[in-house]
Amino acid sequence: MLSVFLVMLLGSALTVVPATARTGAAHQVTYDKYSLQVDGRRIVLQAAEFHYFRLPSQRLWRDVFEKFKAAGFNAVSLYFSWAYHSPAPGAYDFTGVRDVDRLLRTAQQAGLYVIARPGPYINAETTGGGFPAWLKNVPGRARSSEAGFQDAYREWLHRINPILARHQVTQGGPVILYNAENEYQVNTDAAYMQDIQDQARADGIDVPITTNDCCDAGSWSSTWATGPGAVQIPGVDDYPQSFECANPDAWGPWGEGLTEKLRDDIPVFAAEYQAGAIDLGNAGYDKCRELTGPAYMKYFYKNNLVTTGATMFSYYMGYGGTNWGWLAQPNDVYTSYDYGAAITEARLLTPKYDEFKRQGYFLEAVAPLAKTDAAATSPAAPSNPALTTTTRANPDTGTQFVLLKHADRAATSTDDATLDWAAPDGRHQVPVRVRGRDAHVLVAGYDLGGQRLVLSSSEIMTHALIGGRDVALLYGTAGSPGTTILRYGSRPEVKVLEGAVRAAYSGNDLRLDYDHDGLARVLVTGGGRRPLLLLLGTDETAATFWRAETGFGPVLVRGTELVRSATAQGDTLRLSADTAAAGSVEVFAAPAARRLRIGADDVRVTRTSSGSLLGATRAAEQPGLPALTGWRSRAEAPEAAPGFDDSRWTAADHTTTNSPHPPKTLPVLYADDYGYHYGNVWYRGHFTATGAETRIDLNAVTGLRGNYLVWLNGRYLGTAAGGVEADAGDQANPPNPDPGPGHFDIPAGTLKTGTDNVLAVLVANMGHNDDWIADDLRFKQPRGLVAATVAGTVGATPVTWRIQGAAGADKVRGPLNNGGLYGERTGWHLPSYPDKSWKTAAPATPGVTWYRTSFRLDLPKGHDIPVGLRFGGDPSPAYRVQIFLNGWNVGQYGGDIGPQRDFSLPAGLLDEHGTNTLALAVTAEQPVAGPGPLSLFAYGSVRGGP
Ligand code: GAL
């Protein structure tokens, strides 16, 4: 244990950022034990995680941010990947898809705060956990204060911090929190943790600094308010559902998911709360979405809200995206990083999104939630012992938040009870029903706009003052009973506009009883209050509503797939919205809004008895997508041929390495040691044969799913699987000298005695290990060949080696787009490559064969139609395919790669109104027919879009 440090090092000198950097009005961020505050106003922070590096299309950043905002999120949590920006020491690129200035502006335009998480370490199942692979060559333990590493991470921080600093809330921007490191409790280097914060402060960061602790617990770095390494607001990561997507009925196998309160002076911060999962067992992401679906969200998120009183949430992931290029950390993920998130990789909204929206709107609308204390005893007692309640109350307003759920959290029965509820405005008995694995947050004693809500057994989704009357949207499980009691000065007039609602008035209380069914509408006027339109829905009907703020005041819209934003123009309400099917659209807006325009469509409207506008939406067009024909192919791998000129390749002649894994044979053949960090590498070894050679013994480390292919004097000898870890061993485990062995007998007639023989080896580098446990043995794992011997009856024959990898970083697509295939080095993946001389597609022989075709698209204008590439048939382990769309490496397909058959072709990379080129690099281990059948498909179609 570390001793308690007495020195308060936080809050050191704050650098003033020039006024020119301001993007809006400056605000102050503070906090107390309840919540964050912006200019003294309390907020419940509801963030969703997004990785811009997994969606290399700036226009689509806007789409995702608008979708977050429309679900009631008020913040986005962003990791910044060092590896994505830095191809080599001292080299940094923040242009194009790496333009984080633009990213932050886009977040702000969408109305989101930003939790900035620049690491330096981020984990995130991305190559190196965000560390650039060149860092493996740097001395000094990673994630520590050791010298070499310190210089390196400071270099990154001094590039990224100034960008973040000029976008802080305090400078008029969106960045509200700065998260240092990632789950660093595995390590104990307080000086490192402190230095990250000192560098941030020196670079002008003046918003509160946070950190995310792993695994359900606080640690040395978070529970102390003072001392080196302590941050202002530590938070905790919780993944209660595990990552076992194959078992989607699991119910909290990794715990209760209650975020700890780490210190008395800070709010409870759920820094990463599970909202999806990595697909460790290759079950497919739909299963991950099921594992973390609406039932889980209802139970675990609401339990966390009321039981712990958390007011800062960040859900991991809100949108997952794609491990395009060599972005994946190969041991845990494949190309798709869909994550089973609420918004799919193709940006479609799922039932999980609906649940986020129901909860997000509630958090947004009901202000007393930002300041609550746990009630010592719950004021609401269910008559059925199968059910239980937990309550929090706002100490200023007295508003109660009653969590109603099963006493046994795993119960699957549906149970009824009468709730005997001592609410602030009186005691009432109300019938309730709870399904198994569900939970409800019920509110009592609440000033709902101009109304007084005594209590309701329906949940509040939102409410707003619209055109002089309160419109409130409440909801409950379809078929369950609901009671809402409102207080009036005198008997109000009650008009049930739709549905079956019974009203009774006594002692100033108006009691409404109903069953949740469709959408009931009740208009209450008089009674000494402004009018109230009460909308009583089910989970499903409530989720059809969208809320937006306009010049007419707030509006509620239902019948569209999405409302991105709304504006008032004269007497017209203009919606930027997505619509899919033909149907009705209903708008609750101030009477001044008489006309409706959705996108470019004027929508004819009539006024309903609810005072809303009713019109019709047009169905979206379904695109015709071309068949993929006209494939041409060309075999490459000239490197395998003995006569190939490798004289310009890098000599692989090092005898020492920075890797903590000593080489098993010399010279050192680790690809990173020669500056080849991503994708495939080629080796050519020359030796003069004595004639006694019988065998080639190789060993390669590639990361999971990798392989290597071997030729001698142009003859293909075969393939082997690459290893995952060159294990140096520890106290518990013996060293593993043989991580990825391949033994190849030299076929008779292949050797050329007394002269030059050429061994050619193509090794896949699937990406780099992360550094989750802050252990160089794991992070500084070699890639490429780790041992090579030409063996024979009289010992080993000396070999001289050369190595070749990627030809530098692609200026547009970045350092992770390409490896060192011959075709990549010669631009066969690029749309401009002249392939006219290529032959009609032919089968692939062992080695690398490229297939190219182009197709024209002209998707319907004014639509958002995500397009994918589908591999038919069963993925074969005999080959793997790198898929290039217009030069962008959008993923890898193959039986050994993962379960994925559909690959997202994001707009921006895909030209939706022009010619597109697909280039496939097929690495075959055996002769195969080729990568087919292949087709384009649309994931969906909506009118509208970002
Ligand atoms: C957390 C980590 C994230 C991500 C997540 C699993 O522990 O902080 O970066 O790796 O696990 O997806």
UniProtKB/TrEMBL annotation:
Residues 635-664, 726-747 are annotated as: Disordered. Keywords: Glycoprotein, Glycosidase, Hydrolase, Signal. Its EC number is 3.2.1.23. InterPro entries: Betagal_dom2, Betagal_dom2_sf, BetaGal_dom3, BetaGal_dom3_sf, BetaGal_jelly_roll_dom, Galactose-bd-like_sf, GH, Gly_Hdrlase_35_cat. Residues 368-545 form the Beta-galactosidase domain. It catalyses: Hydrolysis of terminal non-reducing beta-D-galactose residues in beta-D-galactosides. Residues 1-21 form the signal peptide. Belongs to the glycosyl hydrolase 35 family. This is beta-galactosidase. It comes from Nonomuraea rosea.
